[in-house]
Amino acid sequence: MPRRLIQLFAGLVLYGISDSMLLLAGLGLDPWDVLHQGLSRRTGIPTGTWVIIVGALVLLLWIPLRQRPGIGTLCNVIVIGAVIDVVLAVVAPPHSLPVRAAVMVSAVVLNGVATGLYIGAGLGPGPRDGIMTGFAARGHSLRVVRTAIEATVLLGGWLLGGTVGVGTVVYAACIGPLAHIFVPLFSRDNPSRAAPEPRNASVRSGSAGWPRRRR
User: Fold this and answer.
1) Alpha-carbon distance values, 67 to 3, 10, 18, 41, 73 (Å)
2) What's the angle, vertex CA 88, arms to CA 85 and CA 93, rounded to 5?
3) Cα–Cα distance between 95 and 82 in angstroms, integer?
4) What whole-number distance in Å separates Cα of residue 62 and Cα of residue 127?
5) pLDDT tens, residue by residue, 119-177
6) How far is CA 1 from the centre of its chain?
7) Residue 207 forms beta bridges with which residues?
8) N- to C-terminal Cα separation, the chain
9) Using the 8-state DSSP alphabet, how is residue 205 labeled?
């Protein structure tokens, strides 16, 4: 358990840092952070604080879906948002476009690593992931549920003033393949640690058809 907790918190802290890097780059965010940033711009409440508020509200939706949070779920609600607020308070955004682009790409890769760490710890999914899997457990397509939720969140965040841009597209295109690599790599229950898969076996991510997330 101590090793799992260390891996969990490492993943959550790195996730918060990667989200902060996307915010600092200013070239586009993942759908949920578009919403968080939009709410922040409308209210003046820091983006990381909105990450915590929205995460807590989403967690309440687990009740009718009969989802059970783990310690990782509860830590996810608090740690990521707190890290975002700290980083944004002490780090100035870059101004040069090449630097902003490099920060954005690095953030997406780091986000994939962080996703693998916190999901691989096996101590509970993020609140937003739980909503998706909760609906999928009731017979709905996970891919359709995820697309519908994230499209709604993205549209709402954009209407509120959140940043949608090339970073949003890069994140959407890359986070799945990155999670496909890093979730099994860091999984504490991964049988491939003991014995490699057959050469022609298909590789699967930690859950059917989904990567991260976040949160």
Assistant:
1) 25, 25, 27, 32, 11
2) 165
3) 25
4) 8
5) 899 898 889 888 887 887 777 777 788 889 899 999 999 999 999 999 999 999 998 89
6) 23
7) 210
8) 21
9) -
CA distance 66 to 5: 25
Query: Beta-strand (E) ranges in the chain?
Result: none
Question: In angstroms, what CA-CA distances link 178 with 79, 115, 168?
Answer: 22, 9, 15
Query: pTM for this one?
Result: 0.84
Amino acid symbol at 206: G
Which residues are CB-neighbours of 177 under 8 A, at least 6 positions away? none
Identify residue 18 by its one-letter amino acid code: S
**148 Cβ contact partners less than 8 Å away, ≥ 6 residues apart:** none
pLDDT the model gives residue 52: 97
Give the angle 21-19-8 at the CA atoms, nearest 5°. Answer: 125
pLDDT at 195 over 60: no
Convert the pLDDT of each residue in 18-76 to its tens digit. 999 999 999 999 999 999 999 999 999 999 999 999 999 999 988 888 888 899 999 99
Cα-based angle 24, 26, 32 (whole degrees, multiple of 5): 90
Least confident range from 38-42, 113-117, 132-136, 200-204: namely 200-204
With contact defined as beta carbons under 8 Å apart, do 53 and 103 qualify?
Answer: no
Q: H-type helices in 161-212, by residue range?
A: 166-186
